[in-house]
């Protein structure tokens, strides 16, 4: 399954909440005025896009409406979509150009750091890379054991010390081992910390300094793991962590379990930190590289789009039509059978009183019936039509009709 399908499933709650409110707003206004924009601002704020970002979006939309002379609310959606794509900017994948490349994982406890490390390790090992993990979260009980389970499952190596030891020393040994063993990627875990834990924040600065000094020349990604379910609180965490670490990207986890996916937009706009990875499920492959265009398209996707209907048709059982066409059926014959099916359906819908016949008509029909007691060559095919053997033809015709309308 590609990223678009994954992200479309992952942000379903966000889409249903945000776009449902937006469609209701469009339907309640017949013209674009100040009241409309006030309602739109409030809507965006309630969708966890944030006050500052919501005001920016509405300001840009006002300018577009004025410049293009738009008066119909139905035309707003496409312009809003373009504004969001521009606001998210170009995608920035992880920089893993050097050998070894270092990934430093930071964030609060419970955000999903350990799970993210396990999924990253599994991903790179499956790509044929040699992965080393440094277990520098020496403060939390059982953190090292949990990380070891993930690394063993992924097929990666781990560098660890005793619980309570110096985290910076673990990172130092990790960088040294990565160079000595020819590892492609070194992933460093760190303790969960909050802004009020001054000692841990200072420890984070020390770890970053050691990586830059010991791993000079190595590309460094400092990824902040945020829990999408916390909404605007996640944005506040990003602001605080950016004060003590040079954050290069965001990993937004648990996106599939919340309607607050709009924080991706405010993170980009307010902090100018790109979201590089998103978690849209529990499986290893559910940690996906973020794609801004696909994210916005998934938000605005409708269930009546062509691609959606086309996929539905692909899911149907096509064995009947393949068997039938393989027997050499011609287009003309298929058309005749379609006409026959339509006639059958029409006769079935005739009211009972219109089907009443006289005794003379009954006797004539009995004579005709007796003449048709001998099975015809086409009786089996006609029976197949009644059983719906060629239902795929009518689905395809109906689909085309609906799309045209």
In this structure, how is the largest beta sheet organized? 8 strands, mixed
Whole-angstrom Rg: 31 Å
Helical stretch tally: 18
Beta-sheet strand percentage? Answer: 5-15%
Helix-strand string: HHHHHEHEHEHEHEHEHEEHHHHHHH
- Identify low-pLDDT runs: 304-331, 348-377, 384-405
Helix coverage percent: 55-70%
Q: Kindly state the mean pLDDT as a whole number?
A: 78
As laid out across the biggest beta sheet, the strand order is 3-2-4-1-5-6-7-8
Work out the oligomeric state of the chains in this entry: single chain
The count of β-strands is 8
Kindly, what is the distance between the CA atoms of the first and last residues, rounded to a whole number of angstroms? 30 Å
| Secondary-structure content class | alpha/beta
Which shape, going by the Cα principal axes?
A: elongated
């Amino acid at each position: 399954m590609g990223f678009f399908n994954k992200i479309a499933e992952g942000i379903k709650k966000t889409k249903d909440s945000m776009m449902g409110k937006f469609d209701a707003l469009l339907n309640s206004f017949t013209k674009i005025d100040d009241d409309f924009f006030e309602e739109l601002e409030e809507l965006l704020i309630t969708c966890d896009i944030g006050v500052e970002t919501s005001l920016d979006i509405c300001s840009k939309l006002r300018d577009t409406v004025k410049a293009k002379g738009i008066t119909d609310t139905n035309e707003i959606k496409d312009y809003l979509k373009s504004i969001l794509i521009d606001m998210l900017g170009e995608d920035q994948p992880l920089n893993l150009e050097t050998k070894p490349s270092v990934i430093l994982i930071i964030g609060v406890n419970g955000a999903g750091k350990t799970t993210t490390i396990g999924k990253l390790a599994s991903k790179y090992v499956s790509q044929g890379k040699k992965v080393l993990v440094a277990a520098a979260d020496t403060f939390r009980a059982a953190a090292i054991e949990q990380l070891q389970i993930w690394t063993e499952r992924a097929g990666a190596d781990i560098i660890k010390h005793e619980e309570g030891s110096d985290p910076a020393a673990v990172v130092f040994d990790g960088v040294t081992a990565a160079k000595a063993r020819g590892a492609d990627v070194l992933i460093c875990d760190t303790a969960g910390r909050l802004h009020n834990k001054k000692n841990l924040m200072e420890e984070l600065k020390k770890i970053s300094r050691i990586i830059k000094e010991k791993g000079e020349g190595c590309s460094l990604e400092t990824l902040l793991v945020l829990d999408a379910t916390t909404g605007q609180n996640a944005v506040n965490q990003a602001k605080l962590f950016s004060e003590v670490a040079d954050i290069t990207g965001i990993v937004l986890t648990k996106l599939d379990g919340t309607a607050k996916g709009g924080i991706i937009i405010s993170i980009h706009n307010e902090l100018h930190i790109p979201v590089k990875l998103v978690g849209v499920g529990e499986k290893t492959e559910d940690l996906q590289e973020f794609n801004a265009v696909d994210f916005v398209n998934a938000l605005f996707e409708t269930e009546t789009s062509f691609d959606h209907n086309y996929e539905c048709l692909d899911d149907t059982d096509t064995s009947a039509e393949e068997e039938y066409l393989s027997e050499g059926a011609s287009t003309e014959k298929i058309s005749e059978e379609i006409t026959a099916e339509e006639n059958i359906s029409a006769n079935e819908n005739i009211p009972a009183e219109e089907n009443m016949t006289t005794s003379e008509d009954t006797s004539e029909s009995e004579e005709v019936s007796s003449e048709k007691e001998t099975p015809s060559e086409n009786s089996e095919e006609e029976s197949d039509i009644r059983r719906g053997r060629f239902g795929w033809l009518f689905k395809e015709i109906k689909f085309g009709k609906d799309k045209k309308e």
